[in-house]
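HUMAN: Forgive my ignorance: could you write out one protein's sequence and backbone structure tokens?

ASSISTANT:
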Amino acid sequence: MTNKLKQRWREGKATVNGWLAIPAGFSAEVMAQAGWDSVTVDLQHGVQDYLSMVACFQAMQVHPVVPMVRVPWNEPGIIGKVLDAGAYGVICPMVNTRAQAEAFIAACKYPPQGMRSNGPIRAGIYGQSVGYQSTANEEIACIPMIETQQALDNLEAILDVPGIDAIYVGPSDLGFSLGLPPRMDREEPQILAIYDRLIAETAKRGIAAGIHCASPAYAVRALGMGFRFVTILNDSGLLLQAARAAVQAVREGAKDKM
């Protein structure tokens, strides 16, 4: 399987990513038909578990989206398991030092580039015609999150680690780390200056910069800044927004009946 995300990034194009917090294959199946380039199962802050992640992958498989996972932490056991299950991209939270970035890449890559153990129980089904192990190191997208002051202090050293394909900004934790309230679509000049720095440093190295957004409008703005990988909320957040808007429209349109 060719990783279409990495292909588009190599071509200098932007990508739009969906996000799954609901532990249900049906939600994944619906989201996979919405036009995203990739869809990420969130094992860190959603209510997904490993088996619900597999069900989401199975539901998405017939649709042209790249299956991704945000793992709970930078731990080689869970990184290996999500890759064995069929993830073609791994977003890893709280990567704050070069050593942590190196450990993350090592967990994602088979030897000699890394230390991933062989056993692609489900992922291997995708690559039987060419040999999954022969292409996995090149096709899997390795994406550390930059979301703390410590990560910013070590930014250049982190980005210089071979094997990083993109970074992913967690705006809420980044703000938290800087003594600001946690939220996504940020406007503080301090944060916008950080975004400019991240975009510039990743561009120098041919790495894509990604960010989680709370609205389509901010996602468009982020792409205009130079980000090339944007996420809009998640399935539960989009469901809630649409439901609230529908209820409000009915109540406003039929005030005399309420």
